Structure formats: structure tokens, C-alpha cells
Amino acid sequence: MRNKISLLTLSIAVFSANLVRADGRDYALEQTAIRQAAAAVADSVVQIHTVGGFERIGETMTSQGPATGLIITPDGYIVSSAFNFAQRPSSILVGMPSGKQVPAELVARDLNRMLVLLKVAVDEQLPVPTFVPEREMAVGQWSLALGRTFQTDKVDTSLGIISALQRMHGRVVQTDANVSAANYGGPLVDIRGRVLGILVPMSPQPTGGGAESEVAGAEFYDSGIGFAVPLEHVLTVLDRWKAGEDLLPGKLGIGMKAGSAFVEPPAIVTVWPGSPAAEADWQAGDTIIAVDGKSVTTQSQLQYQTKPLYAGDKLTVSLRRGTGDKAEEFDSEITLAAELPAFRHAFLGILPATPDEKQPDKEITAPGVVVGHVWPESPAASAGIRAGDRLTKLGDTQIANLAAAIVVMKALQPEEKITIVVVRDEKELKLTAELTTVTEVILSSIDLGNEEKVASSEPRELETLKLPQFPQEAKFLAPEKESAAPGLLIWLAEKGEKDEAALAKAWQASCDAEGMVLLLARPGGENGWEFEDLEYLDQLARTARGRFDADPQQTVIAGSGKAGQLAYALGLRRAEDFSGVIADNAPLPRTMKIPENSPGAALSLLTILPANSSFAPLVKQDIAQLRKAGFPVSVLERPAATDDNQQLDATTRAAITRWIAGLNRL
Hints:
about 20% helix, Pdz3 Domain, globular, Thrombin, subunit H, alpha+beta, six-stranded antiparallel barrel
């Protein structure tokens, strides 16, 4: 947290008492107005001390010093930023305008706008500021960001303007005044001394799988990008808040096509079973056209109409079903939910054939997906599907290729019965399958090519992949034979060429057999992997996917120990960018909140446990929690590593290779 200089102190050196510039502006009058605006609110701005709790949430340090709050009722209700309480403190003390410190109770949280409501017991009426109605807010207005952290007897002040309205899907206003942990929870004030809103960090991107966090957006501190929740809104929900129940974001329970939210239409791709959308009989293929009478044509417009709302809020949604002359429009009354049942992806149980498996001597151009392998005891096996069949239809949808089949599967649900059409020996067969949840079974036998021949080849030199904005270099090993869309295994290695060379030698046979790129990432510091390396890993993964044109169905991040924790953190946060996470002898980061499983991203997890692992109790607890959240978790046990050899044994590597190959499933 950067130290901030009080504008009230700075002004003594900058402004003369009677300074009028050549442009005709009376800067002394402006300074007087700024002082008076800050003073009008100062008595309602309180200093807050928290005791105990976590020091870190994920990779973000929590607020450890004094924080700021704003009195909003004469009988002792105070609002502050949830950032100041993300560590879950054991006790809270508030410095009152009189100078006395009193204990406070955390009444409830607003996890949509990241605020908290506190209550102190008082025997006197407390000063309450005036709020600015949202209709009077305009871009270009003066704004003062106030905090009470560095000095108990003065407010710290940062000057700016309102730079944007209706940011973060209509939940906050934006200011270019400096906003950071020094004034999170304090007021944003206009030049007349009225409160515009409560200062909070907020991020346009969730921190993981759709989950938002109290610390999201804190990285923007003092950058000229600050946010404030309008105080008018806070007062409208105050009665609900006082009841002691957290205000939670409202959820519909639908998934939509990935892409630019400003361009993509709000067409439903998936519907959560048991969600408000499912109870209202919304279906994949429906398109939302209006919310409470306001037209929406893009996903972004839909978010503006729904994201500001809370669980329990009711709305009327207009939808279109069908196309052309068969299209019909209808209204649907819906109540937003606080939580959704864990989403679980559907599983048929086939692995598409590779080009060599299809017919090595003959190119196949017919539409469909040729079956390479069938999982034992899977829905496909029960339906009678065999290796070599060409799947041409799923339900009512013709299948042109694997990409089309994946889209259809994402719209289906476990326990759903579907009709499948396959071509076998030039005859068309119609079969029926009842889908299940994604299997955690690793295929016990899968043809990896002529592995003995590949394994005997000489080790190849690693190549370098360097991101100019980061100091470290990554090394990669490409498969011997080029393929159109190779798999990508990003392994978080320990620093040092010896470790990288050993990893490359161990994995070369599997990479060549499976057509997979091995990318070895290094930590940025001498002390090994830290959570600060997540930004580098995120950028490295994005760069590698583009450079190698990697198969999105087989893009995996992996690591052991602390590196395994980072693999979890990035893979779960960016589930849409990865198909798998491998964590060897690594529990989840202890402060990490497991995100919701997303219908738009089919992420699978592989946990590896060495014999006699001291982390085994924690890892087993994490596996249960991940499965409860809807993620399929496969488990491998391996021999204990020795001090002289930390590498995975050959049997474990072979199982990992089969697991990665199995990610390309339907």
C-alpha cells in the first residue's frame, strides 16, 4: 500500500491564499471549496482496526493496517469495503468521532458490490452525511476520495473527477482520484460535501470460474481507476441488510457461448439442472431478448440488466424459441437464486480416433466423428457403440466433426437419454444412450504408438520461449512429428537446467507418441514458485496456446508441491483456458475458494499422491470438496520420491499420458 499525502496538507505548499491565475480561475476559492467538502463529511468517516484472520487471500495480501468506514445511520450502522474484512478478523474496533474506540459487530456482507455492514452500540446520535442521487451524477464532476487511516484526527484526501458511470455492469461509478487500501471503505464525495458512494476495489474479471472475491481489483490501487458503490443504492437495500443476511449475487443458471460479450447474442447454450432457468423451462437454443421490458441484443446488455441484482430479486425475462416461421416469443417470471446446484458435464464415453487410427492408408472425408476407443461400462459401451463406428448424429443434431460434437455435448445433461446415429460397415444404426457425469476412470490400455522405438531415440535439445515483459525463460520440447493441433502440457519446473533436462528426457517418449508439446516454466525468483508468478504463467499459457495452436481439449497445467498449488490456482481461475490440472503431492491453496464448475469449460483434475505423503489428509479433503463442486477428480498413487530422484516414475508418467489423451473425449 502506497503512502498517500493528505491534500489538505499538500495544499499549504501549493496554493497561495489569494492566487488568481492568468486564465481567470480563482484557485484559492477552489481550494476552499475542496476543504469545505471534505470537512462536511469528515465527522462521519471512521477509522477501523481489525484483529486476527488470514494474512493472504490467494495471491493478494489482505489489509493489515487501519481501514476506513462511513457512518450511514445515527444509531451506529457503518458501511465499509469487504476488502478490509477479507481476512475474517476475530475482532473489530471503530474509532468514533469523539476519539473513543468501541467494538463493532459485522452484521452482514454484500458480496455483489463487495461491502460490509457494521454496527456499533452508541448512546448518542452520530453524524450522517447527505448522499448524491444517482440521477445527478455526471462524468466530469469533481470527486474527493476520503480515508481515515494514517491519522486519527484528519481525513486523507485525494482529488479527481467522476470518469465514468455505470461501470462493472452498472454497479459502480468510476473516479480517477487515487483509491487504494488507504481509503477503501471511505466515501467518494462531491464538491458540495455530499457522498457519491463507498470506495471499493472491483475487477471486470472474476477471480476464478465465475467467483468474485473481496480482494479482486485491488491491483488497480492508486492507478487512476477507482470505483465507488453509490450510497443511494446502499440505503435502498439497508433494511434487507440489517436483517443480518448476506446480500448475494443473483443467479439465473445458464451458460452462453464464449466470446466477446459485446458482440455475442444472449443465446442459451446450457441450463443448470435445478436452477431458476431450469424451473422456468428455459432450454438450450433459447435466446433472451428482453429483461423487465428492456431490450437486450448482446450478452453484455444482459449482464447490465442482471448483474446488479441480488438473490431473491424477481424479474420478467422475454425469450425467443425457434427460428424463422416457427419462432415463438414468451415471457418468463423468474426469481434469482443465491446458489446453483453443482454443474456436472455429461459424458458419453468415446475417444475420437486419431488420423492414423481412422485408416492409415486412406483419407476419410465423410462427416462425423470416428470412434477410436470406448470406455468400459460407459454409456457408449452400454449403447453398443464400437471402435471404428462413425458417429453422425447426437440427438436431433447432425455432427460434421469433433468440434460440432463437443458443442452438442456441452448442451446435454447427465441422466439425459439421447438417440445416437452411427455408421458401421456402411450401414446406419440408431442407438440410445443414457448419459452420465464425466468419468474419473483413466483408461488402462490405450495405443500410444510404437513407444519402444520412440523411447530409444536420442534426447533432443530444448527450445526457448521468452516473454519480453518477464525475466525468466521457458523451455519447450515439441513432438518429433508435427500435428495440426498438438496437446500442450505446461509443467512448472524448479529453477535450473538440470531439472529441465531431466524432465524433458523423461517425457520425450510420451510427447512423441501423443503429439504433445512439453512446456517447462520457471519461477521468477530465487526462492522458487510464489503466487506472484501467476501473472507470468497466465501470459505464458496464452502465448503458448497461440504459438503451438494447441488442442483446447488437451491443454494441461501441472506441478509438484508449491508448483502444484499454483497449477490449481491458475487452472481453476482460468478454467475456460485449460482442460486439465495435474497436482502432485499438493493440496489446494488454503485460502482459495473453489469456484463453480462452468458449463462453458470442461475442466478435469488429476491428483497424484506419493506413498506416505504428509499432505494426504488435506489432499483427500480437497478431493471431496472439488467433487462436491462438480469437478471430476482422478486419483493416482505413486511410489515415494527420494532425495536423489524427485522425478515421477515411468508407470505414473504413462498413466498421466493416458489421462491427458482421455481429455479429448465425448
